[in-house]
Design brief:
The complex is a heterodimer. Chain A is α+β, with helices and mostly antiparallel strands. Chain A has 2 domains: 76 residues, Ubiquitin-like (UB roll); 72 residues, [2Fe-2S]-binding domain (DNA polymerase, domain 1), CATH 1.10.150. Helix content of chain A is 31%, strand content 14%. Chain A has 5 helices and 5 strands. Chain A has a 5-stranded mixed β-sheet, sandwiched between helices. The N terminus of chain A is likely disordered. Chain B is of the alpha+beta class. Chain B has 3 domains: 191 residues, Aldehyde Oxidoreductase, domain 3 (Alpha-Beta Complex), CATH 3.90.1170; 264 residues, 2-Layer Sandwich (Aldehyde Oxidoreductase, domain 4); 171 residues, Aldehyde Oxidoreductase, domain 4 (2-Layer Sandwich). Chain B is 27% helix and 24% strand. The longest helix of chain B is centred in the last third of the chain and has 28 residues. The radius of gyration of chain B is 28 Å and the shape is globular. Classes of the chains: A alpha+beta, B alpha+beta. The interface between A and B is large, with 73 and 76 residues.
């Protein structure tokens, strides 16, 4: 089998045109030149190296790629990076303390065993964080919580422990205020 | 043992990193200079390929290479038949890239390697493929008829083989029977849909001749063996790593999906890392699926409800190929009698080629099919004999004192005899019926009916042969400087929490703190003996191997500590990361013990000073490492089960059906599960609940749909209805613990269990709810609102 036939090939470049974008991500200003068709999710993951934002379907159904865009939870796979020009974005990497201390929502997931493989988890954490920041005194009935969670798919947990984590998050966030 | 670790609801070691977004899934791994692959896939189900023109794709800026069957050298051959079987007379496996023929929508025809995925996909669209479509038959029952179009020209009736398993004397039982019940059931095709799709990255190091492959597989060691064999590289030059993997559920036990051999090939040829990250549509059309079977079941009973014999004949959709052999169908056939004595039965089955992606195990692996078949039949028998549904089961359960219960002549999927090792079936069903309060429910149901509301009670019982061999290993070492306990095994984790339960097992013996146990698995560079994660076997096989290794390590620790503290071994107690002289505050930390057992020349810290050559404590007349001794605290052991260990359980649900909208609401869902001794009840609950959710998908929502031409109709998350939190009930999970006598820990597997009976539970509940409408018995899963509507319509017409 022919191996390394192209050894020494220069680093390839996409022929796509480049557009300048700048935005604030996790409080830091970032500027890049990217292809106009680059998805925001790919921008966050591969341009910025913030790989905690996951991609589960690339068609806006699973919620794995949820980030907070200008104060609202949104799907980063459904936007182009250029559409987020000037936006303020928060990703999962901004949630814990700088020393790694878990945020109450993250702590709640751990305490309640609200994650298994952890792939959908950052999306859930961002959705819940966004919701609880806007609704510090949420309806904690089973039905209401499940409705809030119904934008994110999880294939491992069966959701029971995510519901519990939501309750515990609300409790911990109230306690920390 | 003074501090219990085994059996405690300990928080998971893996969680903080995953919660902070610091997981390391394959596409999170930065491989500088990596190229990216995308595939041209068949858009028709069955066709001759007249031509493949890749010239425009090759000419596109940013494209490095386009592969077709013509330029992949020795890889242009059918991929391995992983599990050969004697009666598998017509096995067919696919080529990495199609040659002359395509057999399903989604089959790989060409692979583009480009500077990024965007360009690679542009190039895929420029590949011109000319097909001559051939007729297809999508209906499983029609596909076996003599005049059905053949998927493979040389496979008559599309049948891969004809199989028969039997125990006892079935014909005699049927001759003796006072009552025969016949049913026919059908389950539909579904998919595991892990939230992280399949993914692979490969890096060939020309200087060292080493191939590193990051593969989201459940079977790193097996993938390594396969790659070494296919590429003719020494096994120790191939390292396969499964880092964080976002769910597997069986889909990732299948090897080799074409990308798993083509991506390494491209890396070797192009001299750069190459990545292929499957997207969701590709996962729906190109990754293994499972479930369709049609069973025709007869049970031979006496008038009192005792079942003395069973015959089952079923068709199994294996897709266009059968790379994983008959594993799924075989498990169905050997699990068909469930928890019941049924001493005589015969199961015949035929795996059938249909023009869809291959079928390989998906969580449950044939067990949900068997459970649905036998449990639907038991409900039918109860109805025909006018017996209570619970009572007919009680009369057939294998009794608590009848274990071990062998089924003579029946060989399970591990190649060993079916012997149920332990159980408490009747006790469990009684507990379930009390918990759901059957009497109370009947009153509630009657009252609801008076108000025009339709409630139903459904339940099902299941067994699961778990912990299949051949074996797994466990390695344990105490780091001499930090005192942390390092544990390896050969299988892989996809979120099950192995790193915590294996740590608990190691901590229980060594006295280490669970958070100080570092478990590394899924890396052939770390441990190179073992098989894979499948068949609910990790806790049983690796768990017991690690336990056995940890018992050896414990003996070493105790001996060293007794020497160091000049006491007898019986006086040593291990806890909180140290050895203690019982009843005193004298202690030696594990780090000190590991250091003291490892003669040193250099000192780095206080404990290591005492192990250096001139320290008083290490004065020796002879060699400092005595002949026959090994340095440090270190042990390896293996566990190979004598045969599968049989977990079991029962679920029940109260479901309200709206006969106008044909929708359902689950009012209550109960589960009692028994997986022997629990290592970590929180993790067990999580596994069971996750299994139930996947069962709920298969019971009411999920179905891979194809049109008559074999075109997938719902290959995305918009149309394939995977349940959200709003569809999955809040199950009440209870446990019983009947230890397995087969292994030192007394554990049984739990990974797949929750999924198994759910379709039966939903079917029996909906059937019970709609009894006033006189609907025909439910014989299909998933049930779907459409199906309920059809049944109600048929009932009102009748």
């Amino acid at each position: 089998m022919a191996r390394s036939a192209m050894r020494g090939t220069a680093l390839g470049q996409s022929p796509d045109p480049r557009v300048a974008v700048s935005m604030t991500v996790n409080g830091e200003r970032v500027e890049r030149e990217v292809s106009p068709r680059m998805l925001l999710s790919d921008f966050i993951r591969h341009e910025l190296g913030l790989t905690g934002t996951h991609v589960g379907c690339e068609h806006g159904v699973c919620g794995c790629c949820t980030v907070i865009i200008d104060g609202k939870a949104g799907r980063s796979c459904l936007a182009f990076a250029v559409q987020a020009d000037g936006a303020d974005i928060r990703t999962i990497e901004s949630v814990a303390g700088r020393d790694g201390t878990l945020h109450p929502v993250q702590q709640a997931f751990r305490e309640c065993h609200g994650l298994q493989c952890g792939y959908c988890t950052p999306g859930f954490v961002m959705s819940i964080l966004d919701y609880l920041e806007d609704n510090p005194d949420p309806d904690l009935s089973e039905e209401a919580i499940r409705e809030v969670l119904s934008g994110n798919l999880c294939r491992c947990t069966g959701y029971k422990n995510i519901v519990a984590a939501f309750r515990r998050s609300a409790e911990l966030m109230r306690g920390s205020q | 043992m003074s501090t219990r670790q085994f059996g405690e609801a300990i928080e998971r070691n893996a969680d903080p990193a995953l919660l902070r977004g610091e997981g390391s899934f394959i596409d999170d791994i930065d491989l500088p200079g990596a190229f990216h692959a995308a595939f041209a896939r068949s858009s028709v189900a069955r066709a001759k390929i007249r031509s493949v023109d890749v010239s425009a794709a090759e000419a596109l800026d940013g494209v490095l290479k386009v592969y077709t069957c013509d330029n992949i050298g020795a890889l242009d051959a059918p991929l391995p038949l992983l599990i050969p079987a004697p009666d598998l007379t017509h096995p067919r496996t696919q080529r990495p890239l199609a040659r002359d023929d395509v057999f399903y929508v989604g089959q790989c025809i060409a692979m583009v390697v480009a500077v990024d995925r965007y360009v690679a996909e542009d190039a895929v669209r420029l590949i011109d493929i000319d097909y001559v479509p051939l007729p297809v038959e999508m209906d499983l029952e029609k596909a076996v008829e003599d005049d059905a179009p053949r998927i493979h020209a040389d496979v008559p009736n599309n049948v891969a083989g004809r199989f028969c398993v039997e125990t006892g004397d079935t014909d005699a039982a049927f001759a003796e029977a006072e009552h025969i019940t016949r049913i026919k059931i059908r389950l539909e095709r579904s998919t595991a849909a892990p939230l992280e799709c399949r993914a692979i990255a490969a890096r060939w190091e020309a200087v060292t001749g080493e191939l590193t492959v990051w593969d989201g597989t459940q079977a790193t060691l097996s993938v390594r063996g396969g790659l070494a064999s296919l590429f003719r590289i020494d096994e120790d030059k191939v390292r396969v790593i499964a880092p964080n993997v976002g769910g597997g559920f069986g889909q990732k036990i299948m090897m080799f999906h074409p990308d798993e051999v083509l991506v390494p090939l491209a890396s070797m040829e192009l001299g750069r890392p190459v990545k292929y990250i499957e997207d969701r549509v590709e996962n729906f059309i190109g990754a293994s699926q499972e479930r369709t079977q049609i069973h025709t079941l007869e049970i031979a009973a006496m008038k009192d409800g005792r079942v003395i014999g069973l015959k089952d004949d079923f068709l199994h959709d294996t897709g266009a190929f059968i790379p994983y052999g008959i594993a799924v169908a075989h498990v169905s056939s050997t699990s068909i009698a469930g928890p019941y004595r049924i001493p005589n039965f015969r199961v015949t089955f035929r795996p059938v080629y249909l023009p869809m992606v291959q079928v390989t195990p998906y969580r449950g692996c044939g067990r949900p099919h068997a459970c649905y078949a036998i449990e639907r039949a038991m409900d039918q028998l109860a109805s025909e004999l006018d017996l209570d549904r619970f009572e007919v089961r009680r009369r057939n359960f294998i009794g608590k004192d009848e274990f071990p219960y062998p089924r003579e002549g029946l060989i399970f999927a591990d190649g060993l005899q079916v012997i149920y090792d332990s159980g408490a079936y009747e006790e469990t069903l009684n507990r379930l019926s009390e918990a759901i309060d059957v009497e109370g429910f009947r009153a509630e149901q009657a009252a609801a009916r008076d108000q025009g509301r339709y409630l139903g009670l459904g339940f099902g019982f299941y067994v699961e042969g778990t912990g299949l061999g051949p074996y797994e290993g466990g390695y344990i070492k105490i780091h001499p400087i930090t005192g942390k306990v390092y544990v390896n095994t050969g299988l892989t984790d996809q979120g099950q929490g192995h790193e915590t339960v294996f740590a608990q097992i190691a901590a229980e013996q060594t006295g280490a703190r669970v958070e100080d146990v570092i478990v590394v698995e899924g890396d052939t560079g770390a441990f190179e003996w073992g098989v894979a994660t499948f068949a609910s076997r990790a806790a049983v096989c690796s768990g017991n191997a690690i336990h056995k290794a940890a018992v050896k390590a414990r003996a070493q620790i105790v001996e060293a500590a007794a020497n160091m503290m000049e006491c007898s071994k019986e006086d040593i107690d291990l806890r909180d990361g140290a050895a203690w002289v019982k009843g005193t505050d004298r202690r030696a930390a594990l780090a000190e013990i590991a250091t003291a057992t490892n003669p040193l020349r250099y000192a780095f810290n206080e404990p290591s000073k005492s192990a250096t050559q001139f320290a008083p404590a290490s004065r020796h007349d002879g060699p400092q490492l005595a002949e026959g001794r090994t340095p440090g605290v270190e042990a390896t052991d293996y566990y190979s089960p004598p045969h599968a260990t049989w977990a079991f359980g029962a679920h029940a649900a109260v479901i309200e059906v709206d006969p106008e909208l044909c929708t359902i609401v689950v009012k209550r869902y109960l589960c009692i599960h028994d997986c022997g001794r629990m290592i970590n009840p929180t993790i067990v609950d999580g596994q069971v609940m996750g299994g139930i959710a996947q069962g709920v998908g298969g019971a009411f929502y999920e179905r891979c749909e194809f049109d008559e031409e074999g075109i997938p109709l719902n290959a995305n998350f918009m149309d394939f209805l995977m349940p959200y939190a709003t569809e999955v009930p809040d199950a009440e999970i209870m446990h019983s613990e009947t230890p397995s006598p087969l292994n030192p820990l007394g554990v049984k597997g739990v990974g797949e269990a929750g999924t198994i009976p759910v379709a039966q539970v939903y079917a029996s509940a909906v059937e019970d709810a709609l009894q006033p409408f006189g609907i025909a018995p439910i014989r299909e899963a998933p049930l779907t609102p459409d199906a309920i509507h059809r049944m109600l319509k048929q009932a009102s017409a009748a």
